[in-house]
Design a protein that fits this description.
- The protein has helices spanning 2-17, 20-34, 38-45, 70-86, 108-111, 114-120, 154-168, 187-200, 205-220, 233-239, 247-259, 270-275, 283-292, 311-321; strands at 61-64, 90-92, 126-128, 144-146, 170-173, 224-227, 300-303.
- The strands form two sheets. It has a five-stranded parallel β-sheet. It has a two-stranded parallel ribbon with strand order 6-7.
- By secondary structure, the chain is of the alpha/beta class.
Length: 325
């Protein structure tokens, strides 16, 4: 009962924060931020001066292969920059996952500004685009491959992993999702992880231009909110959450779990997961939450995600309650 009471307080607090009268004022402030006066625009587009590089003796080269979707890969990159700084390593520009459910063929340079990534973090860690030729396969060299232990703190990397670089010179982390603990690590490491996420990882100019154009189009129509439902096919298959799905859809999601051997859990009881609070909100539940928070039916909502599983059938409740979807 105490937990429910606290949740209710939080719900009311958020509802007050997003009251329609406040929402308009907030959007106006965002409009100013995204469309600065002309006299300031040249300052925002000017590249920042290069920070002096950190001078240190590298203990070896860290090569990393990302896994998961873009959000998971981005978080993993933040972890690995932090690990490279902790162990005084030279980091190779990360390889993005091309074998996941999304089968995206993009390289790091296709998504992120690689030069900015290297230059903006040079006062913390040395980052290079590729290994020296002496460590290439054409020279008969094979890096030591391993997945670090999930949710590890700095002691694991200092006591277990650092020794590997003394022996192998190049270590290849073939999985980097959730490989660094969220909590209980030194504050300076937490700060660096945040810095990588909010400053080091910058989208390419082409992607930023497209994103800014999209935001401006939405702003021209008035206040808006962006909703990431997390209700794509791979998310439901991985979590085993089939509430509201047809029998055929539940079978299809189960088949997808078996199609990817690195998804460890195959047999999942959906209702048990749901009762444990481990399932994403369904579109129907998301509609109820937004109504409870005070959003009216004319709120402009942009669905930011992959294809919603069940398509129009599952989005119908949201469209019923929110005409600006």
């Amino acid at each position: 009962m105490e937990v429910r009471s606290e949740n209710n307080k939080q719900l009311l607090a958020v509802g007050e924060l997003w009251h329609p009268r406040l929402r308009t004022g907030l959007t106006n402030r965002i409009s100013f931020i995204t469309r600065p006066p002309p006299r300031l625009q040249h300052l925002l587009h000017s590249p920042p001066p290069l920070v002096p590089p950190r001078n240190y003796k590298s203990n070896g080269f860290l090569k990393v292969s990302c896994n998961g979707g873009l959000n998971q890969m981005r978080a993993g990159i933040c972890h690995m920059v932090t690990v490279a700084r902790l162990l005084n390593l030279t980091l190779i520009v990360p390889e993005l996952d091309k074998t996941s459910f999304w089968a995206d063929p993009s390289d790091f340079e296709d998504i992120f500004d690689a030069r900015h990534f290297i230059d903006s973090l040079r006062d913390e860690v040395r980052i290079v685009k590729r290994l020296p030729k002496r460590f290439s396969r054409s020279h008969g060299f094979e890096a030591f491959r391993m997945p670090p232990v999930s949710w590890s703190n700095e002691k694991y990397y200092l006591e277990k992993v650092l020794l590997l670089f003394s022996k192998y010179k190049v270590v290849h982390f073939n999985k980097i999702d959730t490989r660094l603990a969220n909590n209980g690590i030194p504050l300076e490491l937490q700060k660096l992880r945040c810095r990588v996420n909010f400053q080091g990882l910058k989208f390419t100019p082409e992607i930023e231009t497209l994103g800014n154009k999209l935001v401006l189009i939405l702003q021209e129509k008035g206040p808006f909110m962006v909703l990431h439902l997390r209700y794509e096919m791979d998310m439901l298959a991985f979590s085993g959450c089939t509430h509201g799905c047809t029998v055929e859809e539940a079978k299809e999601l189960k088949q997808l779990r078996y199609a990817y051997p690195w998804w460890r859990e195959k047999e999942i009881v959906s209702e048990e997961r749901r009762q444990q609070g481990l399932c994403p909100l369904t579109p129907e539940e998301a509609a109820l939450i937004l109504q409870a928070l005070g959003f009216d039916k004319e709120t402009q909502i942009y669905i930011a995600s992959g294809e919603i599983y069940g398509s129009e059938r599952r989005l119908a409740p949201l469209e019923l309650h929110f005409h600006g979807l």
